[in-house]
Amino acid sequence: MKILFMGTPDFALASLKALCEAGENIVGVVTQTDKPKGRGYELTPPPVKVYAAERGLPVYQPKTLRSEEFDALLHEIDPDMIIVVAFGKILPENVINYPRHGCINVHGSLLPKYRGAAPMQRAIIDGEKVTGITTMYMDAGLDTGDMILKREVAIGENDNFEDIHDALAECGADLLLETVNAIRNGSAPREKQNDAEMTYAAKIEKSDCLIDFSKSAAEVHNLIRGLSPIPLSFTHTPDGKLLKVLKSRISAMKSDAEPGSVIALDGVITVKCGEGAVDILRVLPEGKGRMDSADFIRGRKIALGDILS
Questions:
Q1: Contact 59/52 with Cβ under 8 angstroms?
Q2: Where are the alpha helices (DSSP H) in the chain?
Q3: Distance between CA 281 and CA 302 in Å, rounded?
Q4: Residue 158 sits in the same domain as residue 256
Q5: Which helix (H) or strand (E) is 249 found in, with range?
Q6: Which of 201, 223, 239 is the last residue of a domain?
Q7: Which domain holds residue 134?
Q8: What global pTM score does this model have?
Q9: What tens digit of pLDDT does each residue of 219-262 get?
Q10: Residue of 34, 33, 25, 35 lying closest to 5 (CA atoms)
Q11: Is 25 found in the same domain as 166?
């Protein structure tokens, strides 16, 4: 079975590796174009491209999938199945409908919950205890295709985006192999999504990252871990300087202070919330590197009674 793989970041890399190591016939890899990164804005290839090149797989980086050139390439490759994992672009219908075994997607949620661009981050921010992977047949909608297989992954109280990303990447790779085998032998189930149960996981915007300490400690903690290690939630110190937050935990400390007030500095920064308080354990101050809160405190950059806003 000839498989065309489409994916870009590390999340997709886990699935491509699994397919290659399982001996699947990958006839091509489509990924996004190289992007400028770092202070020098040096053009950097996506992780999927680097691995595919190391394996000697044909790599294609079209600027658009809606061109005669890509349509000709698709007919030349003539895949039996297209597998899409975090590719980063919407596929036109002529691509989705081309392969006889379908366009198969690995999505980082238990569909129909958390359709959209940021399912892992949104699940953590919303305080979900369980998320997972869904494999599905793609259609013209946004994550609306018929589901094939699902597998759950627990979200721990202090798991952050990186933890869940890595767990789901491995889960997705395993479930993808199971899905491909089921399609090959004709045993793959096909289940329509219940649109009434749908939730949408919108792309993370800068406005989503601002910490609102008037919310409960649980909500604040969930936001911090859902956005760590990237793009990071943030607040401001009284001098107006940006303070990004990498790590937190729910504090047992009680106080009647105003939300946002620093109520303790015992090696961590304890901040009063609308309900309860959070301990901020690790920060990224404006113009500085990442550091433990204890180092930030020793630098006298924060004081009891300060209001973070």
A1: yes
A2: 10-21, 47-55, 68-77, 93-96, 119-125, 161-184, 217-226, 293-298
A3: 14
A4: no
A5: strand 242-251
A6: 201
A7: 2-201
A8: 0.96
A9: 999 999 999 999 999 999 999 999 999 999 999 999 999 999 99
A10: 25
A11: yes
